[in-house]
Amino acid sequence: MAAYDDREHFIPLRKSDLIELLCRDPKMALSEREPFRQFCALVSAVFHFEYLKQLEGLKDAYAPFDPDADTKTLRPVSADERRKEEERLFTRFAVLMERANFKRLTHEELQRALQEVATVSGIRTQVDLNLFERLDIFTRGDVMGRIPYRSWRKLWRKAEQQVPLYQRLVLMVKLRPHKRLDRDIDTSRVYLKIFKDIPKTDPDMLLPGARVRMTKLDKALIAYPLVAGISIMLWEIGTQVVPDLGKLGLSALASGVGAAATWGVAAALGGYGYKTYHTYQVKKQDYSLRLTKSLYFKGLDNNTGVLMRLLDEAEEQECRETFLAYFCLWKYAPPEGWTAEQLDDYVESYLEGNTGLKVDFEIGDALAKLERLQIVKTSGGVYHAQPLAKALAVLDWTWDHYFPYAHPELQEARSIHA
């Protein structure tokens, strides 16, 4: 069983596409295709039912912290209970992220990203981590992608740059009161965000309270005209106004010429100062607009919507792993069966050979699901797939017994319809 540092567990295939791929396999007889589709439908139904329960549990856990909630609570919660519920929420969410094949961004990785000199987007931000009471960042899909940009070296023409990306990035944030936050932001809530195709150097752009920073070139373009203007003005005063005042003598000062010159200098300095301030504000607005445009098409969902999206992705991943592990064990394992290592290697080579995808298949999790569903047999660390007909019967029994309601009236109704 090979271990890979450059592969992820996530299988980037739609569930329906994977089913069709397996049904077209040369080992699959025409008569087996429909029963196998029924097998996949039953597996999907079982996981959907189980994940529906998880969704309800997560929604209940998130409800006291949901910033978008429009419902009222019927029971007051003490501060101590709220802290415990918050801790449980963060723990449950971390488990969900693991099931959806996300990795938590470490503190060291976040610090490295915050210390980057420049971002791929050309926008620099400054983040105060004291703003966060809790900050969890999860990523998935560490790939190389192409990002459009403009550079003065290319005369500001649009070009593309290859950069490392996170295909998915999820934020879970609990804020504390801070001067950088607007007053209408409720810091008692927990905020969830999910984004796509974020450069690895740019997670700071996504954090609340991030401030846009000027580049050295921007500062120079703002400051140099101010310095040059003041220098020219002082030169003119020194070469023209001062000699003229000397010729006029002290009586001219008494008549107000000196005062007029002083007010003229003050007005000129004020004008240059206002122009500099205005240029700075326009530049900040330009950066903010670029930041908004950059993130507009990268945001995928917020708050409760994030929970629903991630649970759906985790459910799909469970199905994909189960389909692949059972199919390869059923169709390609020899009569003596396969060990976990042999099955793992075969599934990975099957995916790479048939789809070109290089995946680190999560064999332990896949086999645990097959055993829990009772559609494999194991003996001495060797696994055999149950025949398809037996697997269908077992799954059907599992589905029928999710609600073992045995009321006498129901039993009577069943006997009548039988």
Write the layout of secondary structure elements.
Blueprint: H1 15-23, H2 30-62, H3 79-99, E1 103-104, H4 107-114, E2 124-126, E3 132-150, E4 158-175, E5 190-199, E6 211-213, H5 216-248, H6 250-254, H7 257-296, E7 299-302, H8 304-331, E8 338-339, H9 340-355, H10 363-372, E9 376-379, E10 382-385, H11 388-400, H12 408-417
Antiparallel strand pairs: 1-3, 2-6, 3-4, 4-5, 5-7, 8-10, 9-10
Description:
By secondary structure, the protein is of the alpha+beta class. It folds into three domains: about 15-50 and about 305-400, no CATH class; about 100-215, no CATH class; about 215-290. The protein is about 55% helix and about 15% strand. The protein contains twelve helices and ten strands. The chain has helices spanning about 15-25, 30-60, 80-100, 105-115, 215-250, 250-255, 255-295, 305-330, 340-355, 365-370, 390-400, 410-415; strands at about 105, 125, 130-150, 160-175, 190-200, 210-215, 300, 340, 375-380, 380-385. It has a five-stranded antiparallel sheet with strand order 1-3-4-5-7, with helices on one face. A three-stranded antiparallel sheet has the order 8-10-9. Helix 1 (about 15-25) packs parallel to helix 8.
